[in-house]
Specification:
The chain is mainly α. 76% of the residues lie in helices and 0% in strands. The protein has one domain. It holds the Pfam family C166.
Length: 202
Amino acid sequence: MVSIRTITTTAAGLLLSLAPAALAVTSATVVNNLATLEGKSYALQDPAREVNLVNAQLSVTGLGPIPGLIREYRDFITFVSGLNAAYQGSPPFAAGDAAAATIPTSFRRFVVAHSILLNILTGNARLAGFVPGVGVLPPLNVDFGNVLSDARAALETYAARIVALTDAAADAQIQSSWAEINGTFNAAYSFYRSGLLNDILS
């Protein structure tokens, strides 16, 4: 498996050559951005908890929490994509940067918050009967599956952007946290796109 560090290193020279020094991202900005992502992840949890069979039926007419949840998750992805663009090419933080030392902890806090969201989505999907070709609203499986896939891709890039800015010790912690949430993403995506019918019926 190719590590985030490997992906980042292959393009580092080009990215650094393209980025003006004036656009350098500060470590404090990264910490603040991670706190924002953590807050957005918690904010998505309440609408995710409202996903159930009755509300899934309401979505046929655009009502209920599900269409709004998809839109809000898309907004989250757009925000992450904006961060990816802003971080691209920024030079690494200087050795001894105090705020940079707190980034792994901030990233971990975000991972915990977003993992809770993903677990809620996976658990409540069973209540809504989201099984492709079998559940009450198969098209929503595709919508949720696509959202999860796009979120995972955006966040993987974001993790790589942070790794490019931090030192080796921080990198190891960030990649460890990413590996955990990546597994949670894969489980959620697999459920929505594959449809674990046995889980629904058990």
